[in-house]
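RETRY 2/3 - previous attempt timed out on the joint model. Re-submitting the same 269-residue input unchanged.
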Amino acid sequence: MTGTPTFRDGLLAAVPTLRAFAISLAKDADRADDLVQETLVKAWSKQDSFQPGTNLRAWLFTILRNEFYSQMRKRRREVEDAEGTMTESLSVRPSQESSSDLADFCKALALLPEDQREAIILVGASGFSYEEAAAICGCAVGTIKSRVSRARARLQDILGIEGEGEFGPDSIAAQATNVA
Amino acid sequence: MAGRKRTGTGCETGFEKGMTKQNSDRRRNSHKRRLVSDPLGPNSEIGRKLKQYYDALISDEVPDRFSQLLSELEKKEKLNTPRQAAKED
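RETRY 2/3 succeeded.
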């Protein structure tokens, strides 16, 4: 059956996180909303290919990501440096402006290559497993792991954060406490 | 994968691979591993900042246009496929 309220509800519920992912990719709030809109239209027309019971959010992220890269390819053909380089900062929402710490983080994130940025967002922020992120990006799990690791190292470098001893006994103990 | 439907434009390439039940065990195990040495976990400054950044974006108010869009898509579908809808009932 097509167009069940559940599918519609699922799409609507995913919008906030789709927008967050879209902004992280596109670095621009308006463009991000257009991407989300396009994603919803595509998802609606392809809903027969969605397998109920599988991860709807991951499916939508895959569509959004494909849409983003296909738009980018198109843009690059159209613009070909005529307009110069795009603004090199992720747009900061009004609600975020109060925190300069967060603004610094946005800038640092914007400096990452796209493949690293999407990998660290998917795994570190959107809550996907490495396996899910690999499926969304259509690459090997090892590739995602290395992109995340490079992204993290680069962010630490840009933000001047000392290398954290994530393998040290203290950190493991702290995480065990956090989990418990 | 029996019963897998035609996938159209290829957006799903590799997607099902990661989402099958077979993989859910593996996923759980990898989750366990991540708890032990998660470089983006709550103990990592980058991990915390990432979540702070993302949470701020997610808590942003969602414009009405998306809900309106879905309503339009739903309406259009009902208008375009009345016979199909009747068959399904």
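Confidence is low (pLDDT under 50) at residues 84-88, 165-175 of chain A. Closing ticket.
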